[in-house]
Specification:
heterodimer; A: mainly alpha; two-stranded antiparallel sheet; 73% helix; B: mainly alpha; two-stranded antiparallel ribbon; 28 helices; NADH dehydrogenase, subunit N (Ubiquinone) (chain A); membrane (chain A); NADH dehydrogenase (ubiquinone) activity (chain A); transmembrane (chain A)
C-alpha cells in the first residue's frame, strides 16, 4: 500500500512544496510586521516547516513511495523531476539539518536584524536542495542548484556589520559564478552531443554511440566541476575554508552538511543515470572514465582536506578543512563504481549516502557548538577552547561525541558509516582507495582530538567566563549528539535503506 | 527447563548491584554500604541454595546469553553463557556462603574499628564476589578468562586497600604482576583452544573437551600447530592454560605473591583464600577436567607441582611468627593437595577438598581476624598466648578449623585430604610406567607434608591460645560483637561436619553407602560427570590410569598417624606455660626457611637481570624505530599541511586561476587517457 494510491502524483513532491510554502509564510510574517523581533515565532515556524517536510519524506520512505515495492520511481513534469528512494533519503538529511540550524539560530540571531529573511533563505535553500535530489533533467539540475546556491551566498554574507562575513560571501559568490559558468557550459556540450537534457534520454542516446567523444568528455568533466563546487571538492574547493570561516556558524553548519549532501545526491543521479559507466567507457573509440576522475578527486580531496586541517590554529577553519576531507570520503561512493560491479555498486554508493546521513548530524552539531562558543564570545583558536568542559560539561561532551565520530571512532555513528564505506570500497576492489581513506582518518584523529584535549584536559584561562546558556543551541546540539550516538545501534536500517535506494539507480 | 535456574543470572548480578550501590551511594548509607553487600550476597546465597536443590533434582542449565563477536564466516563466536551443573552449583554455594560471612565479619573488622574508605572496601568485595560467581558459571573458556582477570583485578584493589601505608600497595602490585605472568600463558591457551577447536565451550554440542576426545579417537580432525601430533599439541594447550592456574592458585613457582597478600584486610584474605582468587585456579582445572584427563603428561606435571607445593609450603609455615603468615603458607600447601588430587585422577577427591578447605580456611582466617582485633592489630604469635580463656567462642571455632586443617578425624579436612592421598597411592601403584612413579613421588611428598601440616597448625594454636599471656595486650584483649562471633560459629560447625558428605573409608569399613559427593558429581551433563572423567582417564586415548584396588583404610590410618605425630610434637614443644623458640636448633635450615627458600630473591633476579635488559632493548627499538617512524610521519604531515595551507592565499583571483588550471589539468589527463583528442 502506498500512501499515495488515490492521490495525484505531484503530491510526491510534498516535502519540497512544504519547504517552499514555509519560506513564503516566513516572508509573509515578516511583511506583516517588518520590525518584529519575535524570533521565537520565526524560528518555530521554520523548524516546524522543516520537520513537517522531513516527516513527510520519512513517511514516504517507510511507505515505499517511488520505490520498487510500489511500482518504481514517480516521474513528473515530462521527466523533469523524479521522486524515488534516494531523493527522499536525502530530503531527510536536508530537513533534519535545516531543523537543527533553525533551532540553533533562535539564539544565534537574538540580537540581529532581518531575522525573517534569514529563516526564509534557509528554507528556500533547503527547497533547492530537495529539488536537486529530485532533478531528472540537466535543466532542473541547473535551476535547482542555483536555487540552493543563491540563498546560500546571501546567508554567508548575512552579518552585514562583519567584514569577514561580507568578504566570505563575496568570494563564495565569485567562485560560485565561475563554477556555474563551467557547469552551464558543460550542460550545453552534453546537449550538443546527445540532443537531450533529460537524464534517461541522454543515456539512451549515448547507448547508440557518438563520434564526438572529446566534446562529450569535456562536457562530462565540466558538469563534474559544477558538482565539485557544490560538494567543495578539489579543485573547486577554494571557497569553502573562507566561506565556512566567515559565515555565521549555523550557516556554516547548513552549508557544510546539507549543501554538500545536495551536491552529492545530484552527482550520484546524473552520473549513474545519464552516463552509465559501461556505456561511456567505450564510446566512439574513446572513453570517458568518470569513475577514474572521481577516484583521483577523492584521493586529492581527502588528503588535502586532512593535511590542511592538521595545521590550523582556528577551530572553525579546521572544521572547514575537515569538511573538505569528508567530501573526499563521500566521493569514494562514485569512485568505486565499476562497469561490472553489479550489487557492489549499489553497496558502495549506499555506504556513501549513509556516511552523508551520519555526517549531517555530527558535522552540523560540531558547527553549532562553534556557534555557541561564538555566542559566548570566546575566541576561535584551540587555546581559546581550553577548559570549556569545566564550565559547560554537557556541550563539551556533545562536542567530544562529534569529534570522535568525525574521526570514525566507535561507538559513534561515524564509525559505522566510515567502516561500511571502506568495507564496500574493498568489496568493489578499490582497496587502495580504502587504504588512503584509512590513513587520512588516522591523521584526522590528531586534529579532532586536539579539540577534545583543549576542552577537557587543558587548564582554563583565568578569565574564562561563559555567559548565557542558550536553550535553542543546547537543544540542537544535544539532538545532534544523540543522533550521532544512536546511529551506531541504528546503523542497520540506515545502511540497508541507503543501499536499497542506491541499488535502484543501477 | 523452566523454574529456579532461570534466575541463575541474578546470583551474579546481585553482588554486582551491591558493588554499584556501594560505589555510587555508599558514602550516604549507614555502615558504608555493608548492608547492601550483606543483602545482595545473602540473596545470592539463597538463590544458590535453590539452584543447588534444583540441580540435585536432575536439572542443569547451559544457556547462551549474549554473543559479543563473531568471526568471519561464523567460524568462531565469542559468547557469554551460563553453565550450571553439579560442580558449579556446589561452588556457587561455597562462594556465596563465604561471601555473606565475610561481609558480616567485615562489620566487626572494618566498621567497628573505625576504618575509612568503607564504600571502596564494600564495592571491592561486591565486585570480587560477582566476578568470582561469573567465573564459576562461565560456559566457555574465554568468558572464564575474562572473569578470572577481573578476580585478579579485584584482589589487587583489595590487597592494596590501605594504599597509604607502604606494604599493601607493593603487595598488591606483586600479586597482580605475578598472577598476570601466569595469565599471560592462559591467554595464549585460550587463543590456542579457539584455534584448535573453533569453540571454547565447556559443555554442549561444541564442548572442546569432547571435541578433543573425539579427535584422539580419530573421529574428526582438529587444527594442530608447530607440526605436533594431536596428543602433543593438547599437552601444550593444557600446559598453557595451567600457567594461569599456577599463578592464581599460588602453586610453585608462582606462589610468592600469596604470603605478601596478607597485607590486605583479614576478611579479604579469607575471601581470597577460601572462595575466590586462589580457588579459581583449581576450579578451572576441575571445570575442564575432561580435557586434562586426555593428556597424561599434563596430569603428571599437575600432580608433581601439587605434591611439591604441598610439602614445600608446609615446611615454610613451620617457622613463621605472624599468625596470618602461617595461614598463608597453609593455603598454598592445601591448594597443592588439590592439584595433587586432580593430577592423580582424583577429581571427586579434589573437589571435596576444595569444599572442605573453603570452610575451614575461611574459618581460620576469620578466627585470626578476631585474634587480630583482640590484639590491637598485632599479628605476632610470640606476643599472644593464653587467649583461650578470654575468647572462648573464637578458640573453639579456631580449634575446629585447626583440627580440620591438620586432618584429624572426624573433622572435614581429614576426609578430603585422606581421599586425595588414597587416590594418589591407588593410581600410583596401579598405573604402569613413568606416570605411576610420578604419582608415587607426588604421594610421598603429600604424605610427608601431612606431618608438617599437623605441626605448624598446632604450633599456631598453642602459641596463640595456650600458655601464659606474653604481652600486655594479650592479658587484656579488645572485645568484639556478634558480627565477629556469628560467622565463626557457623563456619566452626561446618568445618567439623562437612567431611561427612563423603566418608569413603567408613564406607569401605562398614559397607554403608556414604560417598554422597561421588553421587552428586556423577549427575548432570553427561560429559561433565565424575564417571565420564574416570572412563576417559582409564581409556586408551586418555591418560591410561589404573587403580591398584587397594583398600582406603590403611592409607587413611597412616596419614592420620602422621598428622597426630605432627600435632603431638607441637604439643610437646609449645603447649607449655612459657614456650621458647626452637627454631635455632634448625641451624642454617632456619635461615633458608625464614627466607622462603630464596624464592623471592631469584624471582627479583629474573626480573632485574633478565627481563629488564630485554625490556630496555625493546624500549630502544620502540623509542628509536617505532616512535621515529611515527614522529617522522607526523612531521612530514604537518609540513605538507603547512604547504597546502599556503595555496589558500585569500586572494579570490588566485582561486579562480587555480580552479581553471586544475580543471585544465584534469581535462588533459583524462582526455589523453580517454582518447578525446583523437
Amino acid at each position: 500500500m502506498t500512501p499515495l494510491q488515490s492521490t495525484p502524483e505531484w503530491v510526491a513532491t510534498a516535502p519540497a512544496i512544504v519547504l517552499a510554502l514555509t519560506g513564503l509564510a516566513l516572508l509573509l510574517i515578516d511583511t506583516i510586521d517588518p520590525d518584529s523581533t519575535n524570533n521565537g515565532l520565526l524560528a518555530g515556524t521554520a523548524t516546524l516547516g522543516a520537520l513537517a517536510a522531513g516527516g513527510i519524506a520519512g513517511w514516504f520512505l517507510i511507505g515505499g513511495t517511488g520505490m520498487e515495492s510500489t511500482g518504481g520511481a514517480i516521474s513528473l513534469y515530462g521527466d523533469a523531476l523524479v521522486v524515488d528512494g534516494m531523493s527522499l533519503f536525502f530530503t531527510l538529511i536536508f530537513t533534519s539539518v535545516a531543523a537543527m540550524v533553525s533551532v540553533a539560530s533562535y539564539d544565534y540571531l537574538a540580537d540581529q536584524r532581518y531575522q525573517g529573511e534569514f529563516y526564509a533563505l534557509v528554507l528556500f535553500a533547503a527547497t533547492g536542495m530537495t529539488l536537486m535530489g529530485m532533478s531528472n533533467s540537466l535543466a532542473t539540475v541547473f535551476v535547482s542548484l542555483e536555487l540552493a546556491s543563491l540563498p546560500s551566498y546571501a546567508l554567508v554574507a548575512f552579518l552585514k556589520e562583519d567584514r569577514g562575513s561580507i568578504e566570505a560571501g563575496l568570494k563564495y559568490f565569485l567562485i560560485g559564478a565561475l563554477s556555474s559558468a563551467v557547469f552551464a557550459f558543460g550542460i550545453s556540450l552534453v546537449f550538443a552531443v546527445t540532443g537531450s537534457l533529460v537524464l534517461p534520454e541522454i543515456a539512451a542516446s549515448l547507448a547508440e554511440g557518438t563520434e564526438l567523444v572529446g566534446v562529450l568528455g569535456l562536457g562530462v568533466l565540466m558538469i563534474a566541476g559544477g558538482f565539485a563546487f557544490k560538494t567543495a571538492s578539489v579543485p573547486f574547493h577554494f571557497w569553502a575554508p573562507e566561506a565556512y570561516e566567515g559565515a555565521p556558524a549555523p550557516v556554516s553548519a547548513f552549508l557544510s552538511s546539507a549543501s554538500k549532501a545536495a551536491g552529492f545526491v545530484v552527482a550520484f543521479r546524473v552520473f549513474t543515470v545519464a552516463f552509465p559507466l559501461g556505456t561511456v567507457t567505450s564510446i566512439g573509440g574513446g572513453s570517458v572514465d568518470w569513475s577514474l576522475l572521481f577516484a583521483l578527486l577523492a584521493v586529492v580531496t581527502m588528503t588535502l582536506g586532512n593535511f590542511a586541517a592538521a595545521t590550523q590554529q582556528n577551530v572553525k577553519r579546521m572544521l572547514a578543512y575537515s569538511s573538505i576531507g569528508h567530501a573526499g570520503y563521500a566521493l569514494i561512493g562514485l569512485a568505486a563504481i565499476t562497469v561490472d560491479g553489479g550489487a557492489a555498486n549499489g553497496d558502495v554508493l549506499g555506504a556513501s549516502m549513509a556516511h552523508l546521513f551520519v555526517y549531517g548530524f555530527m558535522n552540523t552539531g560540531a558547527f553549532l557548538f562553534i556557534a555557541m562558543v561564538e555566542k559566548w564570545g570566546l575566541g576561535r583558536t584551540f587555546e581559546d577552547y581550553n577548559g570549556i568542559a569545566s564550565k559547560a560539561p554537557i556541550a563539551a561532551a556533545a562536542m567530544t561525541v562529534f569529534m570522535f565520530s568525525l574521526a570514525g571512532l566507535p561507538p559513534f555513528g561515524g564509525f559505522f558509516s566510515k567502516y561500511a564505506l571502506f568495507f564496500s570500497a574493498i568489496e568493489s576492489g578499490f582497496w587502495w582507495l580504502a587504504a588512503v581513506g584509512a590513513v587520512n582518518s588516522a591523521l584526522s584523529l590528531f586534529y579532532y582530538s586536539r579539540v577534545v584535549k583543549a576542552m577537557w584536559i587543558e587548564e582554563p584561562s583565568a578569565n574564562l567566563e561563559i555567559g548565557s546558556q542558550p536553550v535553542g543551541m543546547y537543544v540542537a546540539i544535544v539532538f545532534a549528539a544523540v543522533g550521532t550516538v544512536l546511529l551506531l545501534p541504528g546503523s542497520q536500517p540506515v545502511i540497508e535503506t541507503a543501499q536499497t535506494v542506491a541499488a535502484a539507480l543501477f | 527447563m523452566a523454574g529456579i535456574l532461570d534466575f541463575a543470572p541474578a546470583i551474579v548480578l546481585l553482588p554486582f548491584l551491591s558493588f554499584l550501590i556501594a560505589l555510587g551511594a555508599g558514602r550516604y548509607m549507614p555502615k558504608g554500604g555493608a548492608l547492601a553487600g550483606i543483602g545482595a550476597t545473602a540473596g545470592s546465597f539463597v538463590l544458590s541454595i535453590a539452584t543447588f536443590f534444583a540441580v540435585s533434582g536432575g536439572q542443569t542449565y547451559n544457556q547462551h546469553i549474549y554473543t559479543w563477536a563473531t568471526g568471519a564466516g561464523d567460524a568462531v563466536s565469542l559468547d557469554f553463557g551460563l553453565l550450571i551443573d553439579p560442580l558449579s552449583s556446589m561452588m556457587l554455594v561455597i562462594v556465596t556462603l563465604v561471601a555473606v560471612l565475610v561481609h558480616i565479619f567485615s562489620l566487626g573488622y572494618m566498621n567497628d574499628e573505625g576504618e575509612t574508605g568503607l564504600p571502596r572496601y564494600y564495592a571491592g568485595l561486591g565486585l570480587f564476589t560477582a566476578s568470582m560467581l561469573a567465573f564459576v558459571v562461565s560456559s566457555n573458556l574465554l568468558m572464564a578468562f575474562m572473569f578470572f582477570e577481573l578476580v585478579g583485578l579485584c584482589s589487587y584493589l583489595l590487597i592494596g586497600f590501605w594504599f597509604r601505608q607502604q606494604g599493601p600497595p607493593s603487595a598488591a602490585k606483586k600479586a597482580f604482576l605475578v598472577t598476570r605472568f601466569g595469565d599471560y600463558f592462559f591467554l595464549i591457551g585460550v587463543v590456542a583452544v579457539f584455534a584448535t577447536f573453533g569453540s571454547a565451550a565447556f559443555a554442549g554440542p561444541e564442548a572442546f573437551p569432547v571435541l578433543a576426545e573425539e579427535a584422539l579417537h580419530g573421529e574428526h580432525a582438529v587444527n594442530t600447530f608447530l607440526g605436533m601430533g594431536e596428543q602433543a599439541w593438547f599437552t601444550v594447550v593444557g600446559l598453557l592454560v595451567l600457567g594461569g592456574v599456577v599463578g592464581k592458585s599460588a602453586q610453585f613457582p608462582l606462589h610468592t605473591w600469596l604470603p605478601d597478600a596478607m597485607e590486605g584486610p583479614t576478611p579479604v584474605s579469607a575471601l581470597i583464600h577460601a572462595a575466590t582468587m586462589v580457588a579459581a585456579g583449581v576450579y578451572l582445572v576441575a571445570r575442564m577436567y575432561g580435557f586434562y584427563a586426555l593428556t597424561p603428561t599434563t596430569l603428571g606435571i599437575i600432580a608433581l607441582v601439587g605434591g611439591f607445593t604441598a610439602l614445600f609450603a608446609a615446611t615454610m609455615g613451620v617457622v613463621k611468627k605472624e599468625i596470618k603468615q602461617v595461614l598463608a603458607y597453609s593455603t598454598i600447601s592445601q591448594y597443592g593437595y588439590m592439584m595433587l588430587g586432580l593430577g592423580v585422577g582424583g577429581y571427586v577427591a579434589s573437589t571435596f577438598h576444595l569444599l572442605t578447605h573453603a570452610f575451614f580456611k575461611a574459618l581460620l582466617f576469620l578466627g585470626a581476624g578476631a585474634v587480630i582485633i583482640a590484639m590491637h592489630h598485632n599479628e605476632n604469635m610470640w606476643d599472644m598466648g593464653g587467649l583461650k580463656e578470654k575468647m572462648p567462642v573464637t578458640y573453639y571455632a579456631f580449634l575446629s578449623g585447626s583440627l580440620a586443617l591438620a586432618g584429624i578425624v572426624p573433622f572435614a579436612g581429614f576426609w578430603s585430604k585422606d581421599e586425595i592421598l588414597y587416590e594418589a597411592l591407588n593410581h600410583g601403584l596401579g598405573t604402569d610406567g613413568g606416570l605411576g612413579t610420578v604419582f608415587l613421588i607426588a604421594y610421598a611428598m603429600g604424605l610427608i607434608a601431612v606431618f608438617f601440616t599437623g605441626f605448624y597448625t598446632f604450633r599456631m594454636v598453642f602459641l596463640t591460645f595456650h600458655g601464659e599471656p606474653r604481652s600486655e595486650t594479650a592479658r587484656d584483649p579488645h572485645g568484639f560483637g556478634w558480627n565477629v562471633k556469628f560467622p565463626l560459629a557457623v563456619l566452626g560447625v561446618l568445618a567439623a561436619v562437612t567431611g561427612l558428605v563423603n566418608m569413603a573409608p567408613v564406607e569401605d569399613l562398614t559397607g554403608i553407602h556414604l560417598t554422597f559427593l561421588h553421587d552428586w558429581l556423577d549427575g548432570g551433563i553427561s560429559s561433565l560427570t565424575a564417571h565420564h572423567y574416570l572412563e576417559v582417564l582409564e581409556s586408551g586415548v586418555g591418560a591410561g590410569l589404573h587403580p591398584a584396588g587397594i583398600g582406603s583404610i590403611a592409607p587413611g590410618l597412616v596419614s592420620l598417624a602422621l598428622a597426630l605425630a605432627g600435632a603431638g610434637l607441637a604439643y610437646r614443644l609449645y603447649n607449655v606455660p612459657e614456650p621458647v623458640e626452637h627454631t635455632d636448633k634448625l641451624g642454617s635450615i632456619k635461615t633458608v626457611l625464614y627466607n622462603n627458600y630464596y624464592q623471592d630473591e631469584y624471582q627479583v633476579w629474573i626480573a632485574t637481570g633478565v627481563v629488564q635488559p630485554i625490556s630496555r632493548a625493546l624500549d630502544k627499538f620502540d623509542q628509536g624505530i617505532v616512535d621515529g617512524v611515527v614522529n617522522g610521519v607526523s612531521s612530514v604531515s604537518l609540513f605538507a599541511g603547512g604547504r597546502v595551507k599556503r595555496i589558500q592565499t585569500g586572494v579570490v583571483s588566485n582561486y579562480a586561476a587555480l580552479l581553471t588550471l586544475g580543471l585544465t589539468a584534469l581535462l588533459l589527463g583524462l582526455g589523453l587517457l580517454g582518447g578525446w583528442f583523437a
